[in-house]
Amino acid sequence: MASSKSPTGPGVFEADAVLGLLKLLQEATRATPEGGPHTYVPPTGGEIAEADYHHFVFGQRGSGKSSLLRHLQSQMIEQSRAAVWIDQEIFSNLQYPDVLVSAVYALMGDISRSLAKRVPQPKKPSLIDRLLRKKDPVSDEARLLGEMQFAVGELEKLKFAPLDRKIEWVVVDQTDAKVSGSAGIKVELVSLQASGETSNRLSTTATEIIEGSKEQFLERALPTFRELLSRAARILNGGFVFVDDLYQLRRLDQPLVLGYLHRLVKDTGVWLKIGSIRYSTVTFRPGDPPRGMQVGHDAHEVPLDRGLRHFQSTQDFLERILSGIAEGLDVDIYELLTPDARKRLVLAAGGVARDYLRLTSGAINEARNRGVTTKPGSHRVIVEDVNKAAGLLSPSKFEDLRKDEPEEAATLEAVVRKLTEFCRVTKAAYFLVPTDDAKLSDQINKLQHLRFTHLLAESETVPNEGSRRFNVWFLDVAELSAQRATQGMDFLGWESREKRRNRKLIFTGTVPETESASKSKSQTRGAKKTVDATSVDTISSAGAGKVQAEALFDSLDGNTARDE
Predict the structure, then answer these.
(1) Prediction pTM value
(2) How far apart are CA 493 and CA 499, in angstroms?
(3) Burial of 203 (0-12, 13-18, 19+ CB in 10 A)
(4) Strands 284-285 and 187-189
(5) Which residues of 438-450 are buried (b: 16+ CB within 10 A; e: fewer)?
(6) Which CA distances in Å does 266 have to 203, 232, 293, 437?
(7) Cα separation, 346 vs 241, whole angstroms
(8) Other CB atoms closer than 10 Å to residue 251's CB: what's the count?
(9) What percent of the chain lies above the pLDDT cut of 90?
(10) What is the DSSP letter of 169?
(11) What is the pLDDT of residues 518-556, one digit of tens each?
(12) What is the rounded distance in angstroms from the CA atom of residue 348 to the CA atom of residue 470?
């Protein structure tokens, strides 16, 4: 066990290996196709996303959604199955239906490229074959690849066409159509000058030229795309389509994109894995016809928000991630961080993995900046280092709030400020919210998804409050630190049920008076009563008149208002 006394030599955080750890921590906070450091720790319950079924992977920013999806992607690649990645953040500035066209183009393009790896390259014809103009028969796989590539080319032209452009396409009910590189295609754009070379002979039963919008084209082409996808999936043994950061799209567009993708892959052997923030996602919109996907009906949910309700298991999970990153550098995190600092890191991160790693990096930097002092334990990373690092995250969290909730940003920011002052007065970083206050509960719940509040316990009772129920919440350490409210603050008292059931911790949207403010107000009221009983009588009896008495009252009233 590490000693709490500070040695005379350099701090543990000053070792060269810790510098290497800082670099790895930066890399580990972003999921990449390569996966970053090989430190993936499966989250509890995340294994169900491996099943051949549609799944919504819900979690706060930094909870590990993309890491889980990247892990599943690597599994698909190892199994030689389709692994399509659609990053919706890239398409977030596009309007509908261009955002849908881009997603379908990415999906069909990736499937086409995966298929190309399976189709053997045609043999180079011999001299005799060339003289006799003999051609090898085209395999079914090669024919399918040609059709897929043609469809991808049509989608590419549709993608780059102006949004307001009228689209013309020809629908061919083919029996023996001969189209260069696209035999079997039933829907082909004609107004955008398709580049495929078409023969003059078309043996068809019906040909129809249609003018419409991009969305209408996608609807008419859907059966063709589904057929191609089904045939490709049989060769590729199915696979997963990963739709990451769905919440980046406009909420009005989300069910439209989901609905089309779901109809596209339905019964094809290809499955959707959708990563998003629950509160910022609209998966389904009822109507005639309904749009989107229903959680529990069309897809199952994989929740990744660990939170602080199971504090010890959350701490164990986060420290396994950190240890996995540090062990390759021979850095002992239990020697580097004091026990209190380790707990504070979990609290400050709210159980969110990315925030935890960022805070660990920030706390190490704070310790390196201050150096070893005379304070016991200062040769390691201590609680004060974590608090300072947390305070630096506060501005970015408010930026996320304004981005994710632009219409309610001002209201929610005001609630955060009131909560901070409330906790400063109560000297506790945790508070109670009555469940029967629907409006306040909704606001606190929104702040939870924005990582300003963290749920600790549900449906708690409080003495002398009858049958009323309360949820126990924890205020983000970053905000407390940014407002210099950590001094003397109780951060772990909520672990005791008796402490968290204190009536003084009930937050109703207002901030109670501090003891000093209440005492000052009481003294002011007492002074006013004394004047009322003596001074006014004295002034009146002395003939000073009503003017002086009224002026004295005005002075006292003004002082009372300022104190309040």
Answers:
(1) 0.76
(2) 6
(3) exposed
(4) unpaired
(5) eebbebbbbbbbb
(6) 31, 14, 12, 42
(7) 33
(8) 11
(9) 62
(10) E
(11) 555 555 555 555 555 544 454 444 444 444 444 444 444
(12) 23
In single-letter form, the type of residue at position 349 comes to: A
Condensed to tens digits (0 to 9), the pLDDT of residues 103-162 reads 999 999 999 999 999 887 666 666 666 666 656 667 889 999 999 999 999 999 899 888
Count CB neighbours of 469 within 10 A.
14
Report phi then psi at 197, rounded to 5: -80, 120
Cα distance between residue 455 and residue 335, in whole Å: 30
Q: For 450-488, where are the alpha helices, taking DSSP H only?
A: 477-482
Cα 530 to Cα 199: distance, rounded to the nearest angstrom: 107
Q: How far apart are CA 278 and CA 59, in angstroms?
A: 7
Per-residue tokens: 466: 């009858």
Please give the Cα distance from 510 to 149 (Å, whole number). 63
SS3 81: coil
Residue 28 to residue 41: CA distance in whole angstroms: 12
User: Would you give the distance in Å from CA 451 to the centre of its chain?
Assistant: 10
Answer whether 428's CB lies under 8 Å from 505's CB. Answer: yes
Encoding tokens for residue 482? Answer: 């940014």
Q: What is the DSSP letter of 179?
A: B
| Positive or negative: CA dihedral 436, 439, 442, 446 | negative
**Residue holding tokens 């919504």?**
56
Beta-strand relationship, 284-285 and 291-292:
antiparallel
Cα–Cα dist 221/466, whole Å:
62
Beta strand residue intervals within 37-119, DSSP E: 55-58, 82-87
Q: Residue 44, Cβ neighbours under 10 Å: how many?
A: 12
**Residue 396: C-alpha distances to residues 351, 410, 450 (Å):** 18, 16, 11
d(CA 508, CA 444): 11
